[in-house]
Amino acid sequence: MHTSVASAGRSHCQVRFPRASPAAARNNGSVTSQPPALDFDACYRAASGRDPRWDGRVYLGVTSTGIYCRPSCPARKPRPENCRFFPSAAACVAAGFRACKRCRPDALPGTRDWDVRGDLVARAVRRIRDGAVDAVGVAGLAAELAVSERHLRRMMVDEIGASPLQLARTRRAHAARALIEETDLPLADIAFAAGFGSVRQFGDTMREEFGIAPSRMSRRRGSAADPLGPVDPVSDPASGPVSDERPRLALRLRTRAPFGAVAIRAHLEAHAVPGRDVIDPDGSTAHAVDVPGGTAIVRIDWAEVPPPAAQSHGGAAVVGVPVVLTLPRLADAMPAIQTVRRMLDLDADPAQIAEALERDPRLGGLLARRPGLRLPAAREPREFALGTVLGQQVSLAAARTLQGRLAAAFARSGALAAPGFLAGPDPERIAACDAQELRDRLGLTRARAETLRSLAGALACGLDVGPGADRDRARAELAAIRGIGPWTVEIVALRSLGDPDAYPAGDLILRRALGVAAGSEAERLAETWRPFRGYATQHLWADFLEAAARKDTP
Questions:
Q1: Is residue 48 domain-shared with residue 179, that is, in the same domain?
Q2: 5 is in which domain, residue-wise?
Q3: pLDDT at 547
Q4: Cβ of 36: how many Cβ atoms within 10 Å?
Q5: Could you tell me what percent of the chain has a pLDDT over 90?
Q6: Is residue 366 one of the residues assigned to a domain?
């Protein structure tokens, strides 16, 4: 889903454009409202220079053709009077434009721009990206955000140029096109997997978005035409749907280059939870992912991801991460894919992060040594919050053991678990136990058991620690629980809330890496790193731990 606001040199744009309307907008959720303010001159310079750094951050609509493109599209650039610029693909479609068949703006990876902000619109975008409209509808999303449908729609149209329903429709359409190109699924199954309510709705939406019927779209799976290459169906038998009960899909999830696969695999290995993760000797990893229909398994073949040095250095370069999803049902495809994208931070923009951090003398060298380092997120926010409490003041190995015990003892009842894997822990079951029972079953101190029980109770009663949460409220409610301090709050904000500016200033390793004794000094040093202090922290952690490992090696 592509919904980022463009920026000139990362500053706010100033000029509001006239409305673009090359075709009448449909009444089924699309809008003809004026898009948000964008700096026309900056956007047109980017498009004229085919600057790939703007891809996914701004979209060019051409009124003379009714097509929208990436700024880097190789086609001849139109005259300025025929150009309109939009902050999202959904806004282009809402204004009546169709995706360019040459530059494929719909095939861009996502963006973390909306993760930087904590306001209502940003929260709504994150929830829609995670499938909230599919799950609870626009009315349910508005209720979650404590606003009326009308107010939510007005705010999003003013800010993004598209309604919540249009954003959700564009998200489904882009997902469906990827499935059409990369799998052998029948079109009816693809419609279901992408979240469409009917085959007719699927066809209408695809024609609206791309100007072509799904049946006429190229099915490039396994062909040389796919620039990312096919996922080998022979090397992994789970390369296609094998039964109605457990469909399997092999995909390549797109992300911007460079992508530091070695570092993120090492992170997954270091934090692997018994019963929830498997690290294979061949280099692949498998992870249990909780989805509405039960527990899905994602297997990642890291050996097929080239190192950053072998990835294109152009800003438009896209890397494909090969994954095989084993799903409880096809309808769980989109939730599983979005969870994996968060886990691997596939929507990060390395160029944007480098631009924000590389001028700091402490970070410039670290960025060069680890190009494409990502900020991995929690697979399930509540599970991670509970696991973070278990990991307080113990080693990483001990924390993994405790988290495995938690999953084994309190797995969600009735969840369709995958063979050999556990479903995630259920906060309600944990909250129903007294502290002594938690001590006996998990091997905790009394104080830790009380904190775990209190947190589980808060989560069971509605404390939201997911990407769409009110971050200020979540931080305050976490901090109010006895036994949860600033370090735990910021770690949960970093991995569960998905806040790229979260910053555990009191972390011992972070302070050692910075060479300071107090958290207040660490806070002062990091002011210029906003809004990406979380990425800076990840780089400092990685560098310190690597240096420590070298010292320990004989």
A1: yes
A2: 1-218
A3: 82
A4: 20
A5: 75
A6: yes
Q: Report how far residue 457's alpha carbon sits from residue 463's, in angstroms, rounded to the nearest whole number.
A: 9
Work out the angle between the directed axes of helices 361-369 and 533-552 (0-180°, nearest 10): 70
Rounded to an integer, the average pLDDT of 285-310 is 94
pLDDT at 206 over 80: yes
User: At residue 177, does pLDDT exceed 90?
Assistant: yes
Q: Is residue 252 part of a domain?
A: yes
- Percent helix, strand and coil across the chain, each rounded to 5? 45, 10, 45
Tell how far CA 441 is from the center of its chain.
34
Cβ(425)–Cβ(407) below 8 Å: yes
Same domain? For 108 and 138 the reply is: yes
Give the CATH number of the domain where residue 549 resides. Answer: 1.10.1670.40
Q: Do residues 491 and 533 share a domain? A: no
Average pLDDT over residues 392-398: 91
Query: What are the structure tokens assigned to 350, written together?
Result: 């390395």
Displacement of CA 486 from its chain's centroid (Å): 25
- What pLDDT was estimated at residue 53? 83
Of 513, 427, 418, the closest CA to residue 465 belongs to: 427
Computed over its alpha carbons, how large is the radius of gyration of the chain?
23
Residues 408 and 367 in one domain: no
* Shared-domain flag, residues 366 and 389: no
Residue positions annotated with a catalytic role? 69, 507
Pairing of the two strands 67-69 and 98-99: parallel
pLDDT at 392: 92
Q: Are residues 199 and 252 in the same domain?
A: no
Q: Which residues contact 150 (CB under 8 A, 6 or more apart)?
A: none
| 243 CB burial (10 A radius; 0-12, 13-18, 19+) | exposed
Q: How far is CA 505 from CA 394, 497, 521, 527, in A?
A: 19, 17, 8, 11
Number of domains in the chain: 4
Same domain, 327 and 386: no
- Do 53 and 87 lie in a common domain? yes
Residue 553 lies in a domain: yes
- Identify the pLDDT of residue 108: 85
Task: Place 110 in a pLDDT band, splitting at 50, 70 and 90.
Answer: confident
537 in Cβ contact with 514 (< 8 Å): no
Residue 225 domain-assigned (yes or no): no
Tokens encoding 515: 């060479």
